[in-house]
Amino acid sequence: MKNYSIKDIAEIAGVSVATVSRVINDNGRFSEETRKKVLKVIEETGYKMNYSAKNLRMNKSFTIGILVPDISNYFFSDVVQQLEEILFAKGYSTIICNTSRSSEKELAYLRILEGKGVDGLIVISGAEAFQFDSSSAEKKIPYICIDREPKKKEDTVFISSNHYQGAFESAEELIREGCQHPVIAMHNQKSTSAKERLKGFKDALKKNSISFNPKQHLLSIDIESEDFEHDLLNFLKKNPETDGIFSINDLIALELMLRLKKNHIAVPQKIKLIGFDDTPSGKYTTPTLSSVKQNTDLIANHAVETLLELINNKGELGRQIVVPVSLVLRESSTP
């Protein structure tokens, strides 16, 4: 099989070598028609770029590091998959690092990624504010924070869902459906997203003349605790008037649904329930789970577009991008 050069690709496609280079690097001006034509020729000829030479020439690795706290979490894994697909289409490979919510592991991965010469980082969620100082002053690695507040906002771009909106609309929906004693169920109250959801829930209650009382309206519960069911029943014993629960995520919501049914507490007849994340399993429960859906596609596109701008020294730092959410209503919150 013939080894095609970039010059051969240009001649077959009827464009200049510079245009082929711009298409490959997804950089510069060219029409969509030209892009498709060049990519078709590349596919038909089996053209392979000499990435080692290209990387040395451009001082780039065309590799992006992604830090995620828990790859088994549906929202995180969905975002990571979207990021990987978009980056791959733009000629970038990814190194995905699961930190297991460990700051020590995260720090170790940061040094590993820096040693591998990644062009940029995407950091997803976490309870602690994120800070990364490149060990080399000559090459600072740009990074994007998704749902994780940066310590130095002027050094990055912060992208998040509108957690406040999701919680506010969920609480309003419960109240609209007749709930007079709605509750928010959560465990971690340290992360930016958790704080925003709690604030949105409180403000919705305030708008509807319900005074928030932590003992009555906050169910602090740990899904991994052996006392999960005991803590739930103990809360309901102290607050028998509870008629609606907004769960900070679907994992807690689905576990709540299971334990409520086990104890003959009907959902939604006795207690209405809304989750957050719109995980696929929520569509197949009985009753089906109402939940807040995050726009992972838009989040990932914003993250990649913004990071590549920073890599090419074109982006504006110190910004925040807030992505709207939508409330998906199903059987768990309707009569």
Automatic annotation (TrEMBL):
<feature type="domain" description="HTH lacI-type">
    <location>
        <begin position="4"/>
        <end position="58"/>
    </location>
</feature>
<dbReference type="InterPro" id="IPR010982">
    <property type="entry name" value="Lambda_DNA-bd_dom_sf"/>
</dbReference>
<dbReference type="Pfam" id="PF13377">
    <property type="entry name" value="Peripla_BP_3"/>
</dbReference>
<dbReference type="InterPro" id="IPR000843">
    <property type="entry name" value="HTH_LacI"/>
</dbReference>
<dbReference type="GO" id="GO:0000976">
    <property type="term" value="F:transcription cis-regulatory region binding"/>
</dbReference>
<dbReference type="GO" id="GO:0003700">
    <property type="term" value="F:DNA-binding transcription factor activity"/>
</dbReference>
<dbReference type="Pfam" id="PF00356">
    <property type="entry name" value="LacI"/>
</dbReference>
<keyword id="KW-0238">DNA-binding</keyword>
<protein>
    <submittedName>
        <fullName>LacI family transcriptional regulator</fullName>
    </submittedName>
</protein>
<dbReference type="InterPro" id="IPR028082">
    <property type="entry name" value="Peripla_BP_I"/>
</dbReference>
<dbReference type="InterPro" id="IPR046335">
    <property type="entry name" value="LacI/GalR-like_sensor"/>
</dbReference>
<keyword id="KW-0805">Transcription regulation</keyword>
<keyword id="KW-0804">Transcription</keyword>
<keyword id="KW-0678">Repressor</keyword>
